Amino acid sequence: MEYIKIGKIVNTHGIKGELRIRSDFEYKDRVFIKGFNLYIGKDKIKEEINTYRHHKEFEMVTFNEYNNINQVLKYLKEDVYIIKEDLKLNNDEYLEEELIGFKVIDNNEVVGEVLNITKTSPTNKIMEINYRGKRVLLPYHKDFILKLDLQNRKIEVKLIEGMI
Questions:
Q1: How far apart are CA 98 and CA 90, in angstroms?
Q2: Fewer CB within 10 A of the terminal residue: the chain, N end or C end?
Q3: What is the pLDDT of residues 26-65, one digit of tens each?
Q4: Taking the model in full, what pTM does it have?
């Protein structure tokens, strides 16, 4: 069973046990739904979503069996996870963390390997690669990524002069 971190509980809201979750998970619409199971904290305590709504930059949830703020205070500042198998992805969909270890190729030459993908703003992401033993940052953007080959674990990119 593989767990995927999708966010963090940052606060409560009101007195009826509603929790604020900060999440930049790319498939929120598939996990923040009534009846979906979330796993809380290092012990991965299983909780089922009773209600969900989006409010400002937060995902607001209540869990089954909880209707009072005092019952959910134990979850404050805890990480929130899902089980990877519970996330139903289509064949052409993937999680960005699955790209770690992919070879990065420019003009049929391997220029590095993906170390991490970081969200720098709501619309921008950076791909960190290992280039000849150095950490190099590349835009993770459709203008630079020509092809993503999930089966062969390769990302073909179009670099501009001076980028590396």
A1: 14
A2: N
A3: 899 999 999 999 999 999 999 999 999 999 999 999 999 9
A4: 0.81
Q: In what order do the strands lie in the sheet with 145-149?
A: 134-139, 125-131, 109-119, 103-106, 154-157, 145-149
Classify residue 17 as exposed, middle or buried by CB count within 10 Å of its CB (0-12, 13-18, 19+).
buried
Kindly report the CATH number that applies to the domain delimited by 96-157: 2.30.30.240
Contact criterion met (CB below 8 Å) for 150 and 99: no
pLDDT along the chain (164 residues), means of 10: 94 96 93 97 97 96 96 97 92 88 93 91 87 89 90 91 74
The sign of the dihedral angle between the CA atoms of 53, 55, 59, 61 is negative
pLDDT of residue 1: 86
Please count the helices (runs of H) and the strands (runs of E) in the chain.
2, 12
Superfamily of domain 3-86: RimM (2.40.30.60)
Burial of 19 (0-12, 13-18, 19+ CB in 10 A): buried
Structure tokens at 139: 């835009």
